[in-house]
Amino acid sequence: MHTFIISGKKLLIAASSCLAAVLVAVGAGLLIAGKAAPTSAQPKKVPIYSVKTEEKKIALTFDAAWGNSDTDRLIEILKKHNAKATFFATGEWVDKYPDDVKRLAAAGHDIQNHSDKHPHVAKISAKDVIKDAKNCDDKIEALTGKRPTLYRAPYGEYSNEMLEALEKEGMQVIQWNVDSRDWKRPSVETMVSSVTKAVTPGSILLFHNDVPNTPAALDAILTQLDKNGYQYMLVSDLILKDNYTIDSNGVQSAKP
Protein backbone atom coordinates (compact mmCIF):
# COMPACT_ATOMS: atom_id res chain seq x y z
CA MET A 1 0.00 0.00 0.00
CA HIS A 2 1.28 3.41 -0.92
CA THR A 3 0.84 6.45 1.27
CA PHE A 4 0.39 9.86 -0.38
CA ILE A 5 1.14 13.06 1.48
CA ILE A 6 -0.49 16.19 0.04
CA SER A 7 0.74 19.53 1.21
CA GLY A 8 -1.65 22.29 2.20
CA LYS A 9 -0.69 24.24 -0.90
CA LYS A 10 -1.45 21.31 -3.23
CA LEU A 11 -4.76 20.69 -1.45
CA LEU A 12 -5.74 24.32 -1.97
CA ILE A 13 -4.86 24.11 -5.68
CA ALA A 14 -6.91 20.92 -6.08
CA ALA A 15 -9.89 22.44 -4.33
CA SER A 16 -9.67 25.54 -6.50
CA SER A 17 -9.58 23.41 -9.63
CA CYS A 18 -12.68 21.51 -8.54
CA LEU A 19 -14.51 24.75 -7.79
CA ALA A 20 -13.60 26.13 -11.20
CA ALA A 21 -14.92 22.99 -12.87
CA VAL A 22 -18.20 23.28 -11.00
CA LEU A 23 -18.57 26.92 -11.99
CA VAL A 24 -17.90 26.07 -15.65
CA ALA A 25 -20.52 23.33 -15.50
CA VAL A 26 -23.05 25.65 -13.91
CA GLY A 27 -22.25 28.34 -16.43
CA ALA A 28 -22.73 25.84 -19.25
CA GLY A 29 -26.12 25.04 -17.87
CA LEU A 30 -27.11 28.67 -18.25
CA LEU A 31 -26.27 28.68 -21.92
CA ILE A 32 -28.53 27.20 -24.57
CA ALA A 33 -27.26 27.17 -28.13
CA GLY A 34 -24.97 30.08 -27.34
CA LYS A 35 -27.76 32.15 -25.75
CA ALA A 36 -28.31 32.90 -22.12
CA ALA A 37 -31.21 30.92 -20.73
CA PRO A 38 -34.10 33.10 -19.62
CA THR A 39 -34.12 33.92 -15.96
CA SER A 40 -37.92 34.18 -15.95
CA ALA A 41 -40.75 33.16 -18.22
CA GLN A 42 -41.68 35.67 -20.91
CA PRO A 43 -45.16 37.10 -20.27
CA LYS A 44 -47.73 35.54 -22.57
CA LYS A 45 -49.15 37.94 -25.15
CA VAL A 46 -52.75 37.66 -26.29
CA PRO A 47 -54.73 39.09 -29.22
CA ILE A 48 -57.74 41.38 -28.87
CA TYR A 49 -60.88 39.44 -27.91
CA SER A 50 -63.09 42.38 -26.94
CA VAL A 51 -62.92 46.06 -26.01
CA LYS A 52 -63.72 47.61 -22.65
CA THR A 53 -66.42 50.23 -23.15
CA GLU A 54 -69.61 51.42 -21.51
CA GLU A 55 -71.17 52.18 -24.88
CA LYS A 56 -73.39 49.58 -26.54
CA LYS A 57 -71.06 49.12 -29.48
CA ILE A 58 -70.09 45.70 -30.86
CA ALA A 59 -68.40 44.30 -33.95
CA LEU A 60 -69.80 41.64 -36.28
CA THR A 61 -67.16 39.51 -37.97
CA PHE A 62 -67.27 36.74 -40.56
CA ASP A 63 -64.49 34.35 -41.51
CA ALA A 64 -64.55 33.69 -45.26
CA ALA A 65 -62.43 30.75 -46.35
CA TRP A 66 -64.56 28.25 -48.27
CA GLY A 67 -67.64 28.91 -50.43
CA ASN A 68 -69.72 31.99 -51.33
CA SER A 69 -73.28 30.66 -51.27
CA ASP A 70 -74.72 33.44 -49.11
CA THR A 71 -72.80 36.61 -49.92
CA ASP A 72 -75.78 38.50 -51.33
CA ARG A 73 -78.07 37.29 -48.55
CA LEU A 74 -75.62 38.49 -45.85
CA ILE A 75 -75.31 41.88 -47.54
CA GLU A 76 -79.11 42.14 -47.62
CA ILE A 77 -79.53 41.23 -43.93
CA LEU A 78 -76.78 43.57 -42.78
CA LYS A 79 -78.29 46.42 -44.80
CA LYS A 80 -81.72 45.73 -43.27
CA HIS A 81 -80.24 46.28 -39.79
CA ASN A 82 -78.01 49.20 -40.80
CA ALA A 83 -75.02 47.09 -39.77
CA LYS A 84 -71.48 47.08 -41.08
CA ALA A 85 -69.37 43.95 -40.67
CA THR A 86 -65.74 42.91 -40.95
CA PHE A 87 -65.00 39.97 -43.23
CA PHE A 88 -61.73 38.18 -42.53
CA ALA A 89 -60.98 36.56 -45.88
CA THR A 90 -58.24 34.18 -46.92
CA GLY A 91 -56.22 34.96 -50.01
CA GLU A 92 -57.48 31.77 -51.60
CA TRP A 93 -61.10 32.91 -51.06
CA VAL A 94 -60.27 36.29 -52.57
CA ASP A 95 -58.78 34.51 -55.61
CA LYS A 96 -61.90 32.39 -56.08
CA TYR A 97 -64.50 35.10 -55.49
CA PRO A 98 -63.13 38.53 -56.45
CA ASP A 99 -66.61 39.80 -57.35
CA ASP A 100 -67.87 38.92 -53.85
CA VAL A 101 -64.99 40.88 -52.32
CA LYS A 102 -65.89 43.88 -54.45
CA ARG A 103 -69.61 43.64 -53.56
CA LEU A 104 -68.87 43.42 -49.85
CA ALA A 105 -66.53 46.40 -50.02
CA ALA A 106 -69.01 48.41 -52.10
CA ALA A 107 -71.67 47.76 -49.44
CA GLY A 108 -69.42 49.36 -46.82
CA HIS A 109 -68.08 46.24 -45.20
CA ASP A 110 -64.41 45.81 -44.33
CA ILE A 111 -62.21 43.08 -45.83
CA GLN A 112 -59.38 42.05 -43.55
CA ASN A 113 -56.70 39.35 -43.44
CA HIS A 114 -57.43 35.72 -42.52
CA SER A 115 -54.11 34.44 -43.98
CA ASP A 116 -53.46 33.45 -47.56
CA LYS A 117 -53.67 29.66 -47.42
CA HIS A 118 -55.30 29.04 -44.01
CA PRO A 119 -52.25 27.35 -42.40
CA HIS A 120 -51.84 26.16 -38.83
CA VAL A 121 -49.73 29.13 -37.76
CA ALA A 122 -48.63 27.28 -34.62
CA LYS A 123 -46.70 24.90 -36.86
CA ILE A 124 -44.85 27.42 -39.03
CA SER A 125 -42.27 30.09 -38.30
CA ALA A 126 -43.13 33.72 -37.65
CA LYS A 127 -41.28 34.54 -40.89
CA ASP A 128 -43.57 32.24 -42.85
CA VAL A 129 -46.65 33.67 -41.10
CA ILE A 130 -45.64 37.14 -42.30
CA LYS A 131 -44.95 35.94 -45.83
CA ASP A 132 -48.35 34.24 -45.99
CA ALA A 133 -50.11 37.30 -44.51
CA LYS A 134 -48.49 39.70 -46.96
CA ASN A 135 -49.65 37.58 -49.89
CA CYS A 136 -53.22 37.93 -48.63
CA ASP A 137 -52.77 41.67 -48.03
CA ASP A 138 -51.62 42.14 -51.62
CA LYS A 139 -54.68 40.35 -53.02
CA ILE A 140 -57.17 42.30 -50.91
CA GLU A 141 -55.52 45.62 -51.64
CA ALA A 142 -55.55 44.92 -55.38
CA LEU A 143 -59.35 44.52 -55.31
CA THR A 144 -60.40 47.05 -52.68
CA GLY A 145 -57.65 49.67 -52.81
CA LYS A 146 -57.28 49.28 -49.05
CA ARG A 147 -54.47 47.34 -47.39
CA PRO A 148 -55.56 45.28 -44.34
CA THR A 149 -54.40 46.32 -40.90
CA LEU A 150 -56.10 43.49 -38.99
CA TYR A 151 -55.27 39.80 -38.92
CA ARG A 152 -57.24 36.81 -37.68
CA ALA A 153 -55.30 33.57 -37.55
CA PRO A 154 -56.82 30.37 -38.86
CA TYR A 155 -58.15 28.13 -36.08
CA GLY A 156 -57.62 30.98 -33.62
CA GLU A 157 -54.00 29.92 -33.10
CA TYR A 158 -51.34 32.35 -31.92
CA SER A 159 -48.02 32.61 -30.12
CA ASN A 160 -45.85 35.39 -28.72
CA GLU A 161 -43.56 35.16 -31.74
CA MET A 162 -46.45 35.41 -34.21
CA LEU A 163 -48.05 38.35 -32.39
CA GLU A 164 -44.78 40.25 -32.14
CA ALA A 165 -43.98 39.65 -35.82
CA LEU A 166 -47.39 40.88 -36.98
CA GLU A 167 -47.28 43.89 -34.66
CA LYS A 168 -43.96 44.90 -36.23
CA GLU A 169 -45.75 44.85 -39.58
CA GLY A 170 -48.41 47.18 -38.20
CA MET A 171 -51.07 44.49 -37.88
CA GLN A 172 -53.39 44.04 -34.89
CA VAL A 173 -54.50 40.46 -34.24
CA ILE A 174 -58.21 39.99 -33.62
CA GLN A 175 -60.01 37.10 -31.95
CA TRP A 176 -63.59 37.10 -30.60
CA ASN A 177 -65.42 36.72 -27.31
CA VAL A 178 -68.83 35.67 -28.69
CA ASP A 179 -68.76 32.56 -30.88
CA SER A 180 -71.87 31.59 -32.85
CA ARG A 181 -70.37 28.12 -33.44
CA ASP A 182 -72.27 28.20 -36.70
CA TRP A 183 -69.74 25.89 -38.34
CA LYS A 184 -71.11 23.12 -36.12
CA ARG A 185 -74.49 23.76 -37.76
CA PRO A 186 -76.62 24.25 -34.65
CA SER A 187 -80.26 25.22 -35.06
CA VAL A 188 -81.19 28.83 -35.66
CA GLU A 189 -82.86 28.93 -32.24
CA THR A 190 -79.72 27.65 -30.52
CA MET A 191 -77.52 30.26 -32.17
CA VAL A 192 -79.90 33.11 -31.43
CA SER A 193 -80.14 32.15 -27.76
CA SER A 194 -76.42 31.58 -27.17
CA VAL A 195 -75.23 34.69 -29.02
CA THR A 196 -77.72 37.20 -27.64
CA LYS A 197 -77.09 36.02 -24.08
CA ALA A 198 -73.31 36.40 -24.47
CA VAL A 199 -73.14 39.85 -26.05
CA THR A 200 -71.96 42.76 -23.90
CA PRO A 201 -70.68 46.24 -24.83
CA GLY A 202 -67.38 45.90 -26.71
CA SER A 203 -68.00 42.32 -27.85
CA ILE A 204 -66.54 40.93 -31.06
CA LEU A 205 -68.88 38.32 -32.57
CA LEU A 206 -67.71 35.45 -34.77
CA PHE A 207 -69.72 34.02 -37.68
CA HIS A 208 -68.76 32.23 -40.90
CA ASN A 209 -70.10 32.74 -44.37
CA ASP A 210 -71.32 29.82 -46.50
CA VAL A 211 -72.96 28.04 -43.53
CA PRO A 212 -76.62 26.98 -43.94
CA ASN A 213 -78.24 28.43 -40.81
CA THR A 214 -76.14 31.56 -40.41
CA PRO A 215 -78.23 34.02 -42.48
CA ALA A 216 -81.50 33.18 -40.71
CA ALA A 217 -79.80 33.22 -37.30
CA LEU A 218 -78.05 36.50 -38.09
CA ASP A 219 -81.32 38.20 -38.98
CA ALA A 220 -82.94 37.06 -35.72
CA ILE A 221 -79.86 37.93 -33.63
CA LEU A 222 -79.67 41.46 -35.04
CA THR A 223 -83.40 41.94 -34.54
CA GLN A 224 -82.93 41.18 -30.84
CA LEU A 225 -79.77 43.27 -30.52
CA ASP A 226 -81.52 46.18 -32.25
CA LYS A 227 -84.16 46.09 -29.52
CA ASN A 228 -81.39 46.08 -26.91
CA GLY A 229 -79.92 49.26 -28.36
CA TYR A 230 -76.67 47.90 -29.82
CA GLN A 231 -74.71 49.60 -32.60
CA TYR A 232 -72.65 47.61 -35.08
CA MET A 233 -69.13 48.82 -35.71
CA LEU A 234 -66.33 47.75 -38.00
CA VAL A 235 -63.61 46.12 -35.90
CA SER A 236 -61.20 48.84 -37.03
CA ASP A 237 -63.55 51.45 -35.55
CA LEU A 238 -64.26 49.56 -32.33
CA ILE A 239 -60.70 48.81 -31.25
CA LEU A 240 -58.08 51.23 -29.98
CA LYS A 241 -55.09 51.90 -32.23
CA ASP A 242 -52.62 53.06 -29.57
CA ASN A 243 -52.21 53.85 -25.87
CA TYR A 244 -53.93 50.66 -24.79
CA THR A 245 -53.37 47.52 -22.76
CA ILE A 246 -54.67 43.99 -23.28
CA ASP A 247 -55.32 41.89 -20.19
CA SER A 248 -54.93 38.11 -19.87
CA ASN A 249 -58.49 37.63 -21.12
CA GLY A 250 -57.84 39.63 -24.27
CA VAL A 251 -59.85 42.68 -23.16
CA GLN A 252 -58.41 45.82 -24.73
CA SER A 253 -58.58 48.94 -22.52
CA ALA A 254 -57.38 52.51 -22.85
CA LYS A 255 -54.37 53.30 -20.70
CA PRO A 256 -55.24 55.48 -17.67
Structure notes:
It contains 9 helices and 13 strands. It folds into 2 domains: 7-40; 50-254, Glycoside hydrolase/deacetylase (TIM Barrel, Alpha-Beta Barrel), CATH 3.20.20.370. It is globular, with a radius of gyration of 27 Å. Strands 4, 5, 6, 9, 10 and 11 form a 6-stranded parallel β-sheet that branches. A 3-stranded mixed β-sheet has the order 3-13-12, with no helix packed on it. Strands 1-2 form a two-stranded antiparallel ribbon. The longest helix has 22 residues, at 8-29. It has helices at residues 8-29, 71-80, 91-96, 98-106, 126-144, 160-168, 188-198, 214-227, 235-238, and strands at residues 31-32, 35-36, 50-51, 57-64, 85-89, 110-113, 150-151, 172-173, 178-179, 204-208, 231-233, 244-246, 251-254. With 256 residues, it is α/β, with parallel strands linked by helices.
List the helices and strands and how they pair.
Blueprint lengths: L7 H22 L1 E2 L2 E2 L13 E2 L5 E8 L6 H10 L4 E5 L1 H6 L1 H9 L3 E4 L12 H19 L5 E2 L8 H9 L3 E2 L4 E2 L8 H11 L5 E5 L5 H14 L3 E3 L1 H4 L5 E3 L4 E4 L2
Parallel strand pairs: 3-13, 4-5, 4-10, 4-11, 5-6, 7-8, 9-10
Antiparallel strand pairs: 1-2, 12-13
Helix pairs in contact: 5-6, 7-8
Q: What share of the residues lie within helices?
A: 40-55%
The value of Rg in angstroms is 27 Å
Number of strands: 13
Parts with pLDDT < 50 across at least 5 consecutive residues: 1-40
Cα end-to-end separation: 80 Å
What is the name of the CATH class of the largest domain? Alpha Beta
CATH architectural label of the largest domain: Alpha-Beta Barrel
